Amino acid sequence: MKYIGMDIHKEFCVVVEMDKEGNLIRQDKIDTSKEAIQEYFSSIDEAKVAIESTGIWEWIYEIIDAIGLEVKLVNPVKTRAIAEAKIKTDKVDSTILAHLLRSNLIPEVYVGNKEMRELKRLVNERLFLKKQIVQIKNRIHSELLRRGIRTEMNIFTKNGRKYLRELKIDSIDRELNILESIEREIKSINEELLQYYEKNEDAKILATVPGIGYYTAVALSAVIGDINRFSSSEKLSSYFGLAPSTKQSGNKTYYGNITKEGPAEIRWLLIQCAWTHVNYCKNSFLTKFYERIARKKGKRKAIVATARKMARVIYWMLKNKEPFHIEGYEPR
User: Fold this and answer.
1) What pTM was computed for the model?
2) Which residue among 45, 243, 255, 267 is the one 20 to 30 A from 187 at the CA level?
């Protein structure tokens, strides 16, 4: 068995091969091209390969994986921390990756299958476009204020947009053109996501939670992937960055704010779902939990705690393939 660390750059890659004892077998510099990577790894029979999750990792991962070698995608931030603690260096290169790989110290990133990766890309694209829409609407509002134009109507309804067009302001017309183009792209993405929702049982299970619509259900299922990769409901809430940070002093453990690790957009979506849930599902055990915490610690802390509890409920729903139970599906 060979242990291979691969340091990926835009123009070239540095590849280091080691044996189990850490002896250098081979070191090469190859072009960052499909042909060069295919040729290099096709000559290797049995190996584990570690690559960092840089911006261009995916197609490289797919080539090596298709050849039949075991590929580990590693978290660069955690890898740097481990390298500093174990090998006394903060510089992570192909040699360090190979050492960590053979020592079984690689902090692996979950990859999922190709369909799930494409779905995550689609979800991220939609989130990006939605942010663009908010920015455009803000610019239109600012332009109207700059010109001293005030109106009480919702300017982004059908009648509101007709009103904006009738103002004959070139800058606003351009913004509206861009806005409507982005909305068409989002509509196209929504249709793709709906198709995925219709054939995905996990997404349908998630959508039984009041407050979680089909889009959020698809987004969550894309990010979670295989629920069995999480050993507990606490692990899932930690993955979303909803677990409280901890600090130990002597024999005491102190709990602070949430860690905010993991996918920030998905954490935000879960918190929004929690708000919708507690506002419109008054007889739910989650709402009662929220109200109890809110009385003691305020609404902001209560809604984060509710989102965390919702994440734990989601874990057991997916684990047991069960719909949401409004009367008291307590997380274990």
Assistant:
1) 0.79
2) 267
Query: Residue 255, SS3?
Result: strand
3-state secondary structure of 175: helix
273: left (phi over 0), alpha (psi -120 to 50) or beta: alpha
CA-CA-CA-CA dihedral for 178, 267, 292, 230, to nearest 10: 150
Pairing of strands 252-258, 244-249: antiparallel
At residue 95, φ and ψ (nearest 5 deg) are -65, -45
Torsion of CA 43, 103, 52, 127, to 10 degrees: 130
Q: Tell me the C-alpha to C-alpha distance, in Å, between residue 185 and each of 47, 64, 188.
A: 42, 33, 5
The predicted-structure confidence for 130-146, as pLDDT tens digits, reads as follows 999 999 999 999 999 99
Per-domain residue ranges for the chain?
2-102, 114-199, 223-320
The residue assigned the tokens 């984060």 is 304
* Matching residue, tokens 């921390």: 81
| Distance (Å, whole) CA 99 – CA 83 | 9
Specify the CATH number for 2-102; select among 3.40.50.720, 3.30.420.140, 3.40.50.300, 2.40.10.10: 3.30.420.140
Q: Residue 326's CB: how many other CB atoms inside 10 A?
A: 15
Bridge partners, residue 74, by sequence:
52, 108
Mind giving me the DSSP string for 116-154? HHHHHHHHHHHHHHHHHHHHHHHHHHHHHHHTT---SS-
280, amino acid identity: Y
With beta carbons less than 8 A apart as the criterion, state whether 1 and 70 touch. Answer: no
Type of residue found at 241: G
Counting every residue written for the chain, the total comes to 332
- Give tens-digit pLDDT for 283-319: 999 999 999 999 999 999 999 999 999 999 999 999 9
